[in-house]
Amino acid sequence: MKLYNSKINQIEAFEPIESGKVSMYVCGPTVYNQAHIGNARPIVVFDLLRRVLVAGGYEVMMVSNFTDVDDRIIQKAKEENVPESVITERYIDAYNKVRTGLHAEGINATPRVTETMDGIIAFIENLVAQDFAYEVNGDVYFRVHKIKDYGEISSQNIDDLLVGARIEANTAKENPLDFALWKNTDDDGIKWDSPWGRGRPGWHTECVVMINDEFKMELIDIHGGGQDLKFPHHENESAQSKALHNHDLANYWVHNAMLNLDGVKMSKSLGNVMWAQDYIDALGSNLTRWLLLSTHYRLVLNMTDELIEQARTELTKVSQAYSKAVITLQREQAEIGHVFDAETYTSFMAALNDDLNVANANVFLFETVKRLNQLLRIKDVDVEAVSQLVVTMEMMLNVLGIVLERVVLTDADRATFDAWEQAKLDKDFERADVYRKTLSEKGLI
Fold first, then answer.
1. Cα-only R_g, the chain
2. How many domains does the chain fold into?
């Protein structure tokens, strides 16, 4: 397995901390609204990575959190005059529905910030005790200057950051780059008691604590998320880990690029935000997932009507060949075995193991579709060869997360097929068209 590591800005061989096992954390959503289609991209990208690793024989523990403490959640709760928990439960349920709709349910834990507060407070106390953080009027800030390689994850130069930093008037921070670990607040929002007063944690500390808590490790293999999280979120996560543990939080930092709609970045101000659930409802789970995998994860995905139609055409070719093959084997009363084309599957996996190159992997999938269609055009069907290619397709589609159900013919379906074939032999094309229409309406041809 080779992955592009943001920490060194190059592809490198993947070597897990523990042989045969992979620890992977992906930053989850702040649950104050529905997931938009851009939020769906990391769901699919990192589920693909998990599937590729599992197919490669690794035991993968994957964790993705819910940030259920945030000013936007508090504001929404205030507008609706309900507790914050009503807002967060609503959007956690909606996010889980999207995740399920994208066939990305293979997650071992989904911790929440509200369930991790004791650990967060203890973590901040430890940073203060070791002089990596300081308190001012109930607020606690992290001392960025004490981390010598700050900027490593996001390829930022600390001097450039200082030049670009907006120094707030009357700020109590020692350094404009220092970031908040705890915010003292007297508003009506949810808050907790702490050694520095009642308040809420800073965003960047939450993930570090949840990672340490869920994996029972201070260093994990892979930390993933959208490219927009590189700075400041992931950079600040890394800094805190280096402060307390003298090493990074993860060995591999993997980031997916953003998503545009018709060449334009999604924005509330532009009114072009599209919800992920709407795509799933309109296009279906398989097509939405195929679409989100249609561009390499490190390149910007530009969603257009043309791309949707291209994806639909590609997926239709795959599904039709698969369905026709499964039906043919049933009509020939042949079992689908377990033998597969090892050479093709190995080549398919080699492409995915090269930094998740889906386009190159799909070359072998479509080659299999072509071979299958050729076999199905022969009068005396080689059922063993067809079965082998069906199994190979199923294995490849499983890694891609595309779910195609095996069609099961009823006795009535078989009788209709037989009648259709006989009508064609009898050159009774009118009757043949009736049978053909019946089979077509049932999606069998």
1. 26
2. 3
